[in-house]
Amino acid sequence: MPRVVSVFLPTLATDRLRRADPSIQPEMPFVVVARSGSKRWLAAVDVNASKVGLHVGMAAAKAQALVQGLHMVDADPAADLVALERLTLWALSQYSPIVAIDPPDGIVMDTEGADHLQGGEALMLSGLVNRFRARGLPARAVVADTWGAAFALARSMTAETTVIPTGKTFDAVARLPLSSLRLSAETIVGLRTLGFKTVGELAATPRAPLALRFGPEVGRRLNQMLGRVAEPIDPIRSPAIIEVHRAFAEPIGAAETIGKYISRLVIKLCLELQVKGLGVRRTDLIVHRVDNTIQALRAGTAKPVRDVAWLTKLLHDRIEKIDPGFGIEKLSLAATMVEPLNDRQIVSSLVEATDIDVTSLIDVLGNRGTHRIYRQVPVASDVPERSVQRISPVADEDGRTWPLTWPRPVRLMDRPELIEVIALLPDHPPVSFVWRGKRRRVKRADGPERIFGEWWQRTSEWTAVRDYFTVEDETGERYWIYRSGDGVDADTGSHRWFVHGTFA
User: Fold this and answer.
1) I need a surface site. Which of 132, 216, 294, 366 has the fewest CB within 10 A?
2) Containing H/E element for 300?
3) pLDDT digits (tens, 9 = 90+) for 363-386
4) 417 three-state secondary structure
5) In Å, what is the CA distance from 124 to each residue of 115, 232, 465?
6) Which residues of the chain are modeled with pLDDT < 50?
7) Strand order in 71-74's β-sheet?
8) How would you classify the pairing of strands 161-163 and 140-144?
9) pTM (two decimals)
10) Are 478 and 503 in contact (CB under 8 A)?
């Protein structure tokens, strides 16, 4: 069962026009007007306009009567489609190999087998919506078993993100209005005249009378929404994307045969990349089956590469995910994310290689779904929790080194834990301390190491002081503890003690 994401961008047209015309005040209600002959209606409304009662489909004359000085601009569907296409191509490079435009204000994606790279469906949707919000575009996203269900729910629900569990499509859409079925306005009016109000009521009615009166479209849309009829997504492709294909006179299905042709496609793709001086960061294998359905596999790399053997291995490792069904009639391999890659000598017979390249390990872990891969590097700060930073595992450290002479613990806690301590103030180490309900007697101690607050970070750190001690208890366990304050002046800290880390 595929998993389909529908993204609804309700203010795409108005946001595009606001960017194009800075004279439009942010607090001003703003609408886009479409026309057909002498008829004019609201094709899009911004957030301010919706707050004062305007909505899509309202007559333009009525909207002008309701809102004094309403700012109105004629619709430009072609420009809106160009903006939507740019967003769709961006989503193609970030989220799924199968992404298509869902005009006039939506994007549809088949994320089967791709959501694990984003941490699961819930994290994928929240990240997607947050990234659209950062661009100034409100969005709602729903993932469901079918395109029709995800489309309807994205435009009917108020929540920004919704995950419909597999097999629960009918329960989710049964109470939706008939307008969510993507039928013509005349058909919707006719169904309402017959007394139908919701999708569930319509689904429980025999299809023959409906088809006799309204044609086959009502049954087709219902079947698409409920997953009884496939609705394939035709993925968008940019002319700039490097893509190679192989069509078959006879459908293939054996894993060995699929692997053989994948290897040949990788060779052709790498030759194309070499001509353009590029390396691939994200590769999509598109599988076209004879039943008019599409599957996709995505393989990513930490650095741009065009190594035939390595790219082949990454794709071969995922062949078991391919379901050939009744046969595969075409394979496509696309480089959806590329970066410049110049040939360089990496090994010399005269110089021994000292750096260990872990890029291959990062690629394997990333393609298995381990998306939170990072490396820690030092930062010029005396405050321990600010002295390290997470970066990409393949990012350059820029020659940074640890600027500290005192030893640091192997494990630094996210938040220091409060402990009870017996110690002689102001400069003596603890005699014993209680941590997590157990008393530990200190046998050896080193310190104090005094760390001052960074006054340029926070005004509350102007007089802040910490005194750190490295202590060892009677069992040989070593801890990094500190006292907040200098032990004399109450303005320097609370004089309470904390455990901040442990040594190996």
Assistant:
1) 216
2) strand 294-305
3) 677 666 655 677 777 787 888 888
4) strand
5) 6, 22, 42
6) none
7) 39-45, 30-36, 71-74
8) parallel
9) 0.71
10) yes
